[in-house]
């Protein structure tokens, strides 16, 4: 537990960082620090406001710097960069080059032309390296290098520069977020975490590293005890910081604990009713929970706050999707993408809508855009697998399902999808392994009192594959397991089919009484199966009466 003195010191450090970040127009990082300050547990008043330290070049460039800042504030990025030409202070050089990057992004979005982006980014890299080699290196310029190398997909160089920036200035959350974006798979994430933990750098141990660890592991769908302990430790220091509550919500959401996640987000909205961030993810969850009235209210609510936010457009699209209005949903997802072409949620969910409309090629294009933006999102990989499966391209489908499974290995749906693909291409041994993995996950994820209850669909699939390879003993085992699930799941298509198979098998073994008991009340299935059940019941009864 942090002492009052250490919390006061943390508040001072965050306040100093917020003023510094605001001064150079890193607005998202500045907002994050301000929210963190107001989220601290000890709410005593700030007794002294830190002042910025200036070197001689800062003072020399100051009048042009404040002019450039005013241009930046009204989004005149080219004008901002031009007004700082010839300035020698690190902050001025940073703002000039940062403005150039934002201008390039804006033009690329408007003109959809990135043909000379690489050459322009390379010139910015040269200017940064020239500045850092000739004077005191500026940590914000290292951050800028990280952004550029991420754009170029040179993730190792991006990580090296971002870590250099964070060692000099750890309170830039945008830099931590950029570092998270540079990490593609879970093994790489663990390697980086262990590397920092084992080093003697200023990042370990630190509050900011704890934030980074929680968010990174949450993005890889981890729900381990260590992650939750670190999160609870941070919440004890920042009990009113909604950013941390959102991480808790996302961990519950990824672990399919929807009711707990809903409760957490409802509390966040009570504390911060005009918050739009992450509201689209909340609406995704309400969609899955089939809470139509609440989703309808959320669509109206977010529209009243700001109808031109991409999150609002996604929420309205979700509402139309739930009503089965897929064309309207796609229209709103496209509107979200006009507002933010990198909206991961919009690309992924628009892919789902195209699948519903059986437009597999458009769905594939949407999912591909989603995985380009964030290769860590298992939903987009899974969507690609589904789209190719509709086209009967099972090897492609298998590859994408495997990518999804690497990101979400504890989700039984991934293993079921892989099992189905292997079955369709005739690899029955691999298919059996996949369905058995799904079955073990299904049982593990249930509460203690429900252990032994299995998904009848998975049981039936295992039985039917064993039937295909003529393994009658194993087939009987899983058909019996499937039928036994009627106690917990009620009568389903799979339990009815299993019941019919068991009756047929009992008849072959001349167990007429068992065959009769299994089929006499079977009336949940298609007409053909019901008729066959009645025929088995008649034959079994006739044999019993002889």
From TrEMBL:
Domain of life: Eukaryota
Pfam families reported in the protein's UniProt record: ANAPC8, TPR_1, TPR_11, TPR_8
Placement of TPR repeats on the sequence: 139-172, 344-377, 378-411, 412-445
Membrane-crossing segments per the record: none
Domain (Cdc23): residue spans on this chain: 9-248
GO biological process, one term: anaphase-promoting complex-dependent catabolic process
InterPro entries (UniProt xref): APC8, TPR-like_helical_dom_sf, TPR_rpt
Swiss-Prot/TrEMBL keywords: Cell cycle, Cell division, Mitosis, Repeat, TPR repeat, Ubl conjugation pathway
One GO location term (cellular component): anaphase-promoting complex
Protein name: TPR-like protein
Organism in which the protein naturally occurs: Candida tenuis (strain ATCC 10573 / BCRC 21748 / CBS 615 / JCM 9827 / NBRC 10315 / NRRL Y-1498 / VKM Y-70) (Yeast)
Biological classification of the source: Eukaryota, Fungi, Dikarya, Ascomycota, Saccharomycotina
